[in-house]
Amino acid sequence: MSEDIDLREFVAGFIAESDELIAAANAALLDIEAANVAGTPQPRAVRDLFRALHTIKGLAGMIGVDPIVELAHGLEGLVRTADRAGGTLGREAVDVSLRGVAAIAERVRAVAAQQAPAPAPAELMDAIAVVSAGVERSPARAPETPRAATAGALDAPGWDAGLVPADRQRVAANWRAGRRAWRVSFAPSEANAERGITIASVRARLAELGDVIKVLPRATPGEASSVAFDLLVASDASAEALAEAAATAADQLVELAAPQEAREPERAEGPCDAVPGSVADVAGPARDDDGGVVLGRALVRVELARLDELQDQLSLLIVSRFRLEREIAALAERGVDVRALREIANLQGRQLRDLRRAILRARMVRVAEVLEPLALLVRSLGRSAQKEVRLELDARDAELDKAVADRLLPALVHLVRNAVDHAIEPADERGARGKPRAGTVRVSCRDVGGNRLELVVQDDGRGIDRRAIARRAGRAVDDDAALLEVLTSSGFSTRDVVTRTSGRGLGLDIVRQIAAGDLGGELAVSTTPGAGTAFTLRVPLTIAVVEVFSFLCGRQVLVTPVSSVEEIFELRPGQDVLPPVASGASSPVRVAERRGEAIALRSLGTLLAIDDGAGARKAIVIRRQGALVGFTVDRMLGRHEVVVRPVDDVLLKVPGIAGSTDLGDGRPTLVLDLCALSARPAERPAS
């Protein structure tokens, strides 16, 4: 590489790529660990791990981050040795590999922070070397059924004419990754056909065990069948497994020697200086789920800051449209024919909505990727607490805004930590109660409509003892809503001793602040003694551009998100409003009845210290912890798509104020979180 090239331009790509590869390596290691427990080999996970490490090494070598190169090379050697010695990684190898990947991640973060990464820890490198040596000395594969001697590579008669250079490169790439090349022969017959065994089924079964590179037909004179097939397969499976998949005898398999391409020195084999070509070689061509070769993917990484900038430009367009609508309305009041202008404004509105959706799609991330770090967290917490804990993730195809995901993850971490630390019992205690020794923490999510996503963190632990909570809190805890109020109180803890993971009384308070405060969502809890607890979070898919209702309270124009509103109805004195009901507050509570369900009515003007007079004619209804609450306002103004901005004034950073927006008049309009406002005491107005 030329010395004139500034490698700093590659750093951003290196960081983004490394983050994905580190996640892939961790996922592969956890799959291998789970396979070890189940007693089933995971050759695909071993291959994925090797590819991730090899690619990280190449990228780090390209920009000269030697500590990462050294760590990745050591781990890569361990995985290669284990693969050749039996295709599995034992517990000790998985442990040291996870430590190594964590060390790589730490140094990637240092590069991202423009700091010099620390050298590879000598103690860790020694541990990798010791484990690798132990794997190398361990018994290799069990002796296999006798098979033909190794053939003369790919140039044997019948192969040389049938293989193109790309096929040979695929064999070489597989060989470097520790997979052997086999020639598997299959002869169709009536007996095989009656059993449903055809060349198509054989190819599909072999594809599950490795890479089917080529299928070549050949004539078989003198036999009942006039044609047979030779399949070139790269696999780390045993000869018996391949023979069984091909419905043939083991002596019909020939292991091929490494091609010349694979014997050529590989630049990335040692700690490297640059490996622009070897990364692609070892990974081989990308493959889709059906085994086909994917020549390229239309994927471009975009920094979130650039999407934020695009979002800001969209917000300016939305404000301009509001101003345009105001001007059109003013012209119409003066008698000007504005039909053409309204058509243009309506077209612009549709185009802005399409643009908003396109930007939102670009900002979305898969929830499954957001939840990936929880697997390592549960593993670490379970070992620290000496508990057997299994994590189940069910994200389906759900997506949400990256900004929401970044704020949501700390809340999920707190809930999962609480589940492992507080809820899941020790294995012996679970066994005595007739439960499986391993506890389960399940994190699931689903789209519930209305721009909302529901996430549930559920455990099968001991459940929450309401009576014990009530004694500790010094107040009654009669239902789930009261239980949540106590658990999310700042400083409340069920622990007398502060530990590394709990006891400070901050965890659930932080969860509530994130879910209800920062994201304008909801938090709920349900628990069954002896069976477990579930915390449910409902959060918006995005908090950047949202649909809102605008309304008048006194002379103040305010807005609230459409997604939080259950319904809006008109107050009709003498029909909908029932006589005041004493509630223990300093003032009575008005109640309206809708379809047989009671709705407590609150004066929004009183809560916000706004003089709304006696003209409240509309009620905006929200649902909080299962109960309906209505806020009385003077008049509904409309429905809009707006850009919500955080409130910078510390005096306005109070529960109930979610942000501000601009409706086109140049003045900030407050965005209300009615769920948070409903928690305020009825007798205490805002100041």
CATH hierarchy: architecture of the largest domain: 2-Layer Sandwich
What is the number of strand segments?
A: 22
SSE-based structural type:
alpha+beta
The radius of gyration over CA amounts to: 32 Å
Proportion of residues in β-strands: 15-25%
Reported by name, the CATH topology of the largest domain is: Heat Shock Protein 90
Low-confidence stretches at least 5 residues in length (pLDDT < 50)? 1-6, 139-153, 263-297, 582-587, 683-687
Portion in helices: 40-55%
Main sheet attributes: strand count, strand direction, barrel closure? 5 strands, mixed
Provide the CATH superfamily of the largest domain: Histidine kinase-like ATPase, C-terminal domain
What's the domain count?
A: 5
Spatial arrangement of strands, main beta sheet: 1-5-2-4-3
Distance between the termini: 65 Å
Helices, by number, come to 22
The CATH class of the largest domain is identified as Alpha Beta
The rough form would be described as: globular
List the topology elements.
Layout: H1 8-38, H2 43-63, H3 66-84, H4 91-112, H5 122-137, E1 148-151, H6 165-176, E2 180-186, H7 190-194, H8 199-209, E3 210-219, E4 227-235, H9 239-245, E5 253-256, H10 260-263, H11 278-283, H12 304-333, H13 339-363, E6 364-366, H14 367-371, H15 373-384, E7 389-394, E8 399-401, H16 402-423, H17 427-432, E9 439-449, E10 452-459, H18 466-473, H19 480-487, H20 507-518, E11 522-528, E12 532-540, E13 545-553, E14 556-561, E15 567-570, E16 590-594, E17 597-603, H21 604-607, E18 618-624, E19 627-633, E20 635-643, E21 657-662, E22 668-672, H22 674-677
Parallel strand pairs: 1-5, 7-9, 17-19
Antiparallel strand pairs: 2-4, 2-5, 3-4, 6-8, 9-10, 10-12, 11-12, 13-14, 13-20, 15-18, 16-17, 18-19, 21-22
Helix pairs in contact: 1-2, 1-4, 2-3, 3-4, 3-5, 4-5, 12-13, 15-16, 16-20
